[in-house]
Amino acid sequence: MQLSSPSVQDRAPTPPQGRPLIVDARAVHAWYGSSHVLHGIDLQIARGETVGLLGRNGMGKSTLIRTLLGHVTQRDGQITLFGQDASRARPHEVARLGVAYVPEGRGVFPNLSVRENLVMAARRGRDGRQDWSFERVLETFPRLRERLTNLGSQLSGGEQQMLSIGRALMTHPELIVLDEATEGLAPLIVAEIWRVIGDIRGSGIATLIVDRDYRKVLARSDRALVLQKGQAVLAGPSAEVAADPTLPSYLGV
Amino acid sequence: MNRRSSPLFVALVFAALALFPLVAGNYGIDFVTKVMIYAVLALSLELLVGSTGLVCFGQAAFFGIGAYATVLLSPQSGAPSLLWLLPACMLAAGAYALFVGALSLRTKGVYFIMVTLAFAQMAYYVVHDTPLGGGTDGIYLYSKPAIGAWLDLDKPLTLYAFTLACLLAVFGFLALLLRSRFGRALAGIRVNEQRMRATGFSTYPYKLAAFVISGALAGLAGFLFAVKDGYVNPEMMSWHLSGAVLIMIILGGLGHLRGALIGAFAFALLQEFFKSEAIFGGFAKHWHLGLGLTIIASVALLPRGLVGVPGQVRERLVGKGMSSRRADASEVRNEHA
Amino acid sequence: MSTPEVLLRGTGLTRRWGGLVAVDQVSLALERGSVHAVIGTNGAGKSTLINMLSGEIPPSSGSVELLGQDVTAWTQPRRARAGLGRSYQRNTIYPSFTVFENCRLAAQARTQKPWAWWHSAQACEASTSTARDVASRAGLDDMLDRASGLLSHGQKRQLEIAMCLATGPEVLLLDEPLAGMGAEETDRMLALLEALRPGHAILLVEHDMDAVFRIADRITVMVNGAVIASDTPDAVRASPEVQAAYLGDH
Amino acid sequence: QAAPKLKVGLMLPATGTFAALGTAIENGFRLYVAEQGGKLGGREVEFVKVDDESDPAKATDNVNKLIKRDNVDVLVGTVHSGVAMAMAKVAKETGTLLIVPNAGAGAVTGPMCAPNIFRSSFSNWQTGYATGEAVAKRGHKKVATITWKYAAGDEMVAGFKEAFEKAGGSVVKELNLPFPNVEFQALLTDLAATKPDATFAFFAGGGAVKFVKDYAGAGLKKSIPLYGTGFLTDGTLEAQGDAAEGIFTALHYADSLGTPRDNAFRLAYAKAYKLQPDVYAVQGYDAGQMLGVGLAAVKGDASKKGEFAAALEKAKIDSPRGTFTLSKAHNPVQDFYLRQVVGKENKSTGLASKALADPARGCKM
Amino acid sequence: MPVASRGNGRLPPPEMDIATFLIQCLNALQYGLLLFLVASGLTLIFGIMGVINLAHGSFYMIGAYMAFALAPIVDATFGGGFFSTLLIGMVLAVLLGYVLEWAFFSFLYEREHLQQVLMTYGLILVFEEARSLLVGDDVHGVNPPPLLAGTLPLGEMMTYPVYRLFVSGVCLAVALGMYFVFTRTRLGMMIRAGSANREMVQSLGIDIKFLYRVVFAAGVALAVLAGMVAAPVSSVYPGMGNSVLILSFVVVVIGGIGSIRGALLAALLIGVVDTFGKVLLPQAAGVLVYVLMALILLWKPDGLFKAG
Ligand SMILES: Nc1ncnc2c1ncn2[C@@H]1O[C@H](COP(=O)(O)OP(=O)(O)OP(=O)(O)O)[C@@H](O)[C@H]1O
Ligand SMILES: Nc1ncnc2c1ncn2[C@@H]1O[C@H](COP(=O)(O)OP(=O)(O)OP(=O)(O)O)[C@@H](O)[C@H]1O
Ligand SMILES: [Mg+2]
Ligand SMILES: [Mg+2]
Predict the structure, then answer these.
(1) Is residue E159 reached through a cis peptide bond, with omega within 30 degrees of 0 on the bond before it?
(2) Which of A154, A164, A193 gets mutated to test ligand 2 (max ligand atoms within 8 A of its CB)?
(3) Å from C155 to nearest chain A CA?
(4) Chain E contact for B206, CB < 8 A?
(5) Which structural domains are found in chain A, ordered by start?
(6) What would be the CATH architecture of the domain defined by B5-301?
(7) pLDDT by residue (tens digit) across D274-304?
C-alpha cells in the first residue's frame, strides 16, 4: 500500500484487504492563492469504510475534503475515485460518481423550503438504489417534518444541520463526507447521527468524517488520519491512532 | 483588505490637472472642466456605492436639483454671489437627499436601488411636466455667479480653477472621511450591517448622513454644471445620467476614491476617442460600438476595474495567476450565502 | 456575599412565527458573576431567545430589563451600547476585513464619535489596544492581518467571540460559542469564560454538555419553546424529564 | 489663390430615436453642397460632425466642441428642441451662424431670436395652426386633441387651437400622455366616450406609428376622422401600413408635389442616396440653400453677420416645398399643404394655409 | 364660446359611464398582461438567476426586429408566416443566449454583482449599434398574422383587435408555465438554489455552469418572444428596448424578486394605475408608476411577494 508522509511510513493507512478502494488520493497538495495549505497527503477509503479526519482548527481538514471534491482548483497530486481519475474533476462530476457532502456551515439553501431542499437533491444511487426516500429522511429527522414549508433561512441551526445531512442522503451516495456534521446538534440528535452513520456503514456506504469529538470519531471509525499544518502526522487503524501517545499533542488536548 | 489609495498617483493627477491649462486650448479647458464636474458627481456616488454599499440609482436627481437651484435662485439681472448661492444649492440637494434617504433607507439591496430611482423620477417629472423649470425645453442662467470682481465664474479659466479646487476639496474631504471612524463605520455597514447593529452602531443615522453628504456633493456638481453651461434641462435628472455615473465608478473600480476619478476620465475620454472622426472617419457615428466593446473587454479582463490594473500587471510579472483572487472572492461570498 | 445583582432580566418572553410559538413565556435573570446556560433541543427557541434579549427581533409579548431599566422598546444598538454583547451561532463577521479590523471596529462602537471626520480611525488608541487584547484572548494573535473571510471555520468562531468581547459588554449572550472549535480552543474558551465570570453576567447556549456542566452556575432547559427545567447543574442532570427530552444517556 | 475651407459643423443625432432624421437632414444638406460643386460662397466646404445623441444635457458640450475645438464657421442642427435651445444659446453668445434644420421650438425664433440664428424648417406653432385652419375648413366643430406632454406637443396644440377657435370651432378635450409613453388604449377609450367630430394628434416616429395603428385598431378611424401635423405620417407610412390610409395632415411639404423644382430634387436625391427623400431631407437641403444664399452675399466671409442676415431676409428660397421667405425672426414664411395618405404617399390635396408666418412672440430684434 | 374650452388643461373633470369603465378595465388588464410578458425574461434572468441584466431591453428589441426582419425570409424559405417565425426566432434566441452566457457571463458570477451592470451596459451599446448597422434606424411596422388580424366590436363605436387577445393569451401561458416550472419542478428548485449557493449545488451533482447557461438562454428566449409577440402591437423602432427596460425592472421588483406571482400581480397593478391614471389624473400620469413603486416598497420593503 502507498505510504503517506515520510514520518508515518510505518503506519500507512491500509484498508482492509479485499475491499475495493473508492477513494485513492496520493500526494495531494493544495494552495489558496500563494499559501500552500496541503503538503502531499495520501488518503484511501475502501467501500463501506469509515475514516476519521482529525486535527486542530485551521490544519487543513476542510481543505483536504474540498480538494478531493474538486472545489479547490489549485491542487496537485493524483486523485482516483471509484477507479476513475478525478485529479481534475469538477465538483458536480465528483458528486455524480457517488460522493455526497455535508459542508461545515451546512450549506442549506436559504431561499428554498425544507421540502424543496430535499426534493431537489434526490437522485438514484450508482446501482439504482433508492432506499433513502423522502419519507425515510423525515423519519430519521422528525423535526424536519414539522418544518417542511419553512424556508431554509428560517430554521434553527440544528435543524439546518439535519436538513443538510438529510439532503446528502437523498443523493444515495457511496461515500458521504461529513465536515463537522454534528456541530450545533443536541446530544440526543448527535447520538442519532452517529447511529445513522453506523447504519449507513452497515449498508455499505463509506464515510469520511470530521468531528470535534475525537473520541467518538476514533471509536466509530475504521481508520483515522490526523493533520497538522497540512501534513499527515498520524494515520492508521483508529484503535492504533487512539493509543498513540503523541495524539494529544496534535489535537491540543 | 485595506483600501489605501495611492497618494502619489492622486497627487500626480491633481498636479497634471493644475498644469493642464498651460498647454490646453479653449476647448480642452472646457472639456476637462466638464469631466472634473462628472468626477465630483462620481465621487459623491462612490461614497454611497463603494464605501457604504448603498447602490443609489437616483444620483442625477441631486445633481439636477443643484443645477436647477442655481438657475432658479439666481436673480434675473446682476451676478449672484457665489458665497450664498453655492451653499444654497448644496443645501437644496442635501434637503431632497434627506427626504429621499429617510424613506428609501427602509429598504435594502435592489429594492433600495429602485426606490431611489423612483424618487429621482419624481423629481424628473416635476421639472419635465410643470412650468416650474421651463418644462422640457429647460431654462437659462442669465448671469454667472461671482465673488466681487476677483472670482468671476463666467471666465472659463476661473471656472476651471474653481472646479479643480472643488474636486480637490471633495476628494480630500472624502479621503479624510473614509479613514475616520465615521468612514470605517460605513465600511462596516457595507460588509455586515447586522454585526454593526449588534455591536452598538445605530446604522440608520449613519447611512442617512452618508446619503445626505452624497446628495449635497452631487448638488455641488450640479451647481458647477449649471454655471458652466448656463443652461439646465430636465434630462440632467434622467436615469440615464444616474446610470452613467454608476458606470463610471464601476469602470474605475469600486471601493477606491481614485476609482471614481479614473472612471470619470476614462469614460469621457473613451467616448471622445470613439467619436473622433479624425481616427475613425465615417465609422465614428457608430461610436457606441467601440465604447460597448471596450467596456465589455474591460469587465472581462479587469476584474477590479481600472484601479486594479497596476496590481494585475504586478501579479503578471511575478507570475501569480488570478485563481487566488477567485478563491478568495467565492470564499468571502459564501460567508453570506 | 451580598444578594446577587441581576444585570439582565427577561420576563414572560414569547415569540411567534406564524402559527409556531418559538419561545413561550420564558423568564430568566442573569446575575453578575454567574454563567447561566440555556440548553435544549434543536429548534427549542434558544437563539430566538437571545435575539429577543439582544433586541435583534421584538418579542411578541414580554419584557426585557437591562441593568435595572426596561429596555423592551430599545433598539439593538442602544442595548449594545448600554452593555449588552452577543455572539452569533452562524458566523457574523466582516469577511473582507482583517481580523484586527474586525475587532477594532467592534471596539470602536464604544467610542463612535462619528462627527470627528478629520481623525483617523486607526489613531484611536482605545479601540486599537482593545482589538489587540481581545484577539489575543481569543487565540488569534498570529492572524491579525489575515482577511477574516479566509480563516478556517474554527478560527472564525474564535473571531466571533473576540468581537463580542471587544465591545466590553457587562452582559454576554453567547450562542454556541464552542461549536466548531477544537478541543484546545474549547479549553481556552472555557478558561476565558471562567476569567470573565466575575463582574459579568453570561448567558451560554451550548450543546457541548461537558462544557456546560463544567462551567454553568445555573441551567435552563428549553423544549419546543417552553422552559421545562431551570436549576443547578446537578439538579438538571438528575432530572428524568431533561434526560428524556434532551440529554439522552449523556 | 484658394480661400480657406468653410467649416460647417453638423450637430445632428447619429444614434438614438432620431438617428434616421439626422441622416436625412445631413443627406439633404450634402446634396445641395454637392450640387454647388462642393463650394458655398466661393469657399470649399468641409464638414465637421458631432452626434448630439438628442441629449440636451450634453448639448452645450457638443456645441462647444464644434465652436471651440473645431472653430466652425457655421453651425447646422438639430432635431431635438431641447438640444436646439442649448445650441441657440451658445450661438447667441458667441455670434456663430446657426441654421436649425428641424427643431420647431417656438423660442428659437421667439425669445431666443438673434441676427445670426435661422431656421429652415418650421415652428411648432405654424404646423399646428395650419392644421387648425384646415380642420375648421373641412367643417368640423368639436375636436379633441391628443399629444405627448412636452414642449413640442404643447406648442402644436396651442397653434391648432388658436386657428381652430378663431374659425369658430371648439376643442372639447385635450388629452396628454407622458413622453415617451406609447400606451394609448386608455386615452382612445376616453376619446370614444367624448365623441368629438374629429381628432387632432401630434406624435412622431415610433409613437406616431403606434398611435395611428392603435387608432385604426380601436375602430375610431371610421367614426372620428383623424388629423394631425404632418409628422404623424411622415417617414412612417411603410410602418403604419393600411392604418394610415386616408388620414389628413398638414405640413410644409408633401410627397409628389409635382412641381419641376421638387421633381428635380427628388430625382437627384434618389440618385445620390438610393432613397426617397422626406421632409427632413428637404429641410436639410434648404438649410444648405440658405447658407449658400447668405454666403454668396458676403462672398464667403461668414463673419459678416449683418450682411449675411440682410441677404437672407430679402431672399426667396427656391425650395422643393415651394418658394419661401424668412420672417423678421428668421423663420420660414411658407405654404402649408393639406395632405392625405394615399397608397404609401402623403399626397397634397391643396393648401391648408398660404404663406403662413410664425408670430415670433417674444422676439426682440 | 363653448364652455368646454377654458384654457389649457382646465377642462371639466373627467367622468366615466359604466361601459367606458369596463372598457378601461379591459385596457388595464391587457396592458398589464403585456407588461408581464415584456418583463418575463427579466424575471428569469434577474429575478431568479440574480444577474442584473440591463441588456433585457436589448433582447426585447432584438425580438421585435426579428419579427420584422426575419418574417419575410422565413416565409420565403419555410412558409407558415408568423408562427414559424416565432418558432425560428425562439431557436435563434436560445442559441444567442447560450453563447452570450458562455462568452460574457460565465465568469461573472463569482465577482461583485455590479460588474454585471457594466457588462450588460456594454452589451446594450453593442446591440443597439449592431441593430443600426444591420437594419438601419427607420421605424417599421409589423402586421399581425392574417389569422389574428380581425377586430371585435366593443361599446358603441370602438373595436378591439383580436391580436391583443392573442397577446394576453401568450402572456398567461408564459406566466403559468414559468410558475409551474419554478415552483413545482426540481429544475426550478435547482435554479433558485444556484442563485444562493453555487458551490453547494455543484456538490449535489448538478452542473451549474450548464444549468445557468440554459436558464440564461431561456431568459433571452423569453425576452425575444416578448419582442416578437409585441412587435405588431408596439411597432419596431430604435431605442425601443430602452423604453421597456426600467418598467420591466419595476415589475420584477414591485412583485418581489424571484416571485412570478408577484411579477404578474405587479404588472397588472401597473396596468391599472397607468390606464386610470392617464384618464383621471393626466397631470401626474408620468410619475404614477414610480409613486406606486415607492409606496409599495415603503410599505413592503421586500416587494409584494417575498421570494419563496
Ligand atoms: N479560501 C481561503 N483562502 C486562503 N486561506 C484559506 C482559505 N480557506 C482556508 N484557508 C486557510 O487554510 C488553512 C486550512 O483551513 P481549513 O479550513 O482546511 O482548516 P480546518 O482544518 O478545516 O479547520 P477547522 O477545524 O477550523 O474547520 C487555515 O489556516 C485557513 O486559514
Ligand atoms: N424567521 C423565522 N421564521 C419562521 N420560523 C423561524 C424563524 N426563525 C426561527 N424559526 C423557527 O423557530 C424555532 C426556534 O428557532 P431557534 O433558532 O431559536 O432554535 P434554537 O433553539 O436556537 O435551535 P438550535 O439549537 O438548533 O440552534 C425553530 O423551529 C425555527 O425553525
Ligand atoms: Mg474545517
Ligand atoms: Mg440556535
Answers:
(1) no
(2) A154
(3) 6
(4) no
(5) 1-98+214-244 (3.40.50.300)
(6) Orthogonal Bundle (1.10)
(7) 988 999 999 999 999 999 999 999 998 888 8
